Amino acid sequence: MTGTAVGTHTVVAEWPDAVTTELRPKPPTAGAAGKHLPSPAEPTTPVAPGAPWTDDPYAHALRTGRGPLFLRRLSHSDRPDGFGVEHTLPLDVERWCAPADAADTTVLRRCTGSVLDAGCGPGRLVAALAARGVPALGVDLSRDAVQRTRRSGGAAIRRSVFDHLPGEGRWGTVLLLDGNIGIGGDPVALLRRLRELAAPGGLLLAEAAPQDVDERLTVRVENAHGHHGRPFSWARLGTTALLSAARSAGWIQTGRWTAEGRPFVELRRPHAEHPHAQAPITERRPPS
């Protein structure tokens, strides 16, 4: 693990009491894993759309721990980008709902200080960090994602990364994995927001798409039966595009690597941006 100026393991000091009570760790539960992804349904299948990531097929997939689940492209692109001929991209629900794997571990080993997982999904990374004794908080819009994270022993709150969050400007590490660079459809705006959340000198560990892409999309989540949520803005960035967006957002590249075919980058928030920046999050345990 690398060190930063933001200190050692700490716990979040700013959670409201009601949230702290809700986030008490619970015994882990195992998720089911599927092996084969069938093809998505034809886009003309009658459906009843739900809100993106909350009451659409994504929520059901998190409850069951398995897919198949897809992102369907609704906007046009003429670049090869990993979407199949049916304009769908499989979402790796089984991996997200399983324990952290070898590629994930290469990221977790780089974490330092308290960790914020932006778009934590079912919480495998937050749970793995908690098992290591590392204070970590997941943030996700999905109620089912937050509940599954808590059942696995992690801490999570249901909010957007653009909402006010605990410990703003004091997180030692921020995680942005599993395609979450796409959140909001504006990568530079997202990366600027995450820089606000990180402490001066703090890290952002981000995952890029394996293809050399740089695109803004309109997509929806759907399952193999064609049931889907409402369209929303998304983005997909390969490593080159992600690093370019990071520079525009004020991050400094400090590393890059690939594990199990997944490309990652390590970025650092400069130390000297704000001479009066808040101190890093320090430990404060609830009274016994």
TrEMBL record:
Sorted alphabetically, the keyword list is: Methyltransferase, Transferase
Which biological process annotations from GO are given for this protein?
methylation
Q: Which Pfam families match?
A: Methyltransf_23 (PF13489)
The source's superkingdom equals Bacteria
- Annotated membrane-spanning segments are none
Under the heading SUPFAM superfamilies, the entry gives:
S-adenosyl-L-methionine-dependent methyltransferases (SSF53335)
Check the record and name the InterPro entries matching this protein. SAM-dependent_MTases_sf (IPR029063)
**Any idea what this protein is called?**
Methyltransferase domain-containing protein
| UniProt lineage | Bacteria, Bacillati, Actinomycetota, Actinomycetes, Kitasatosporales
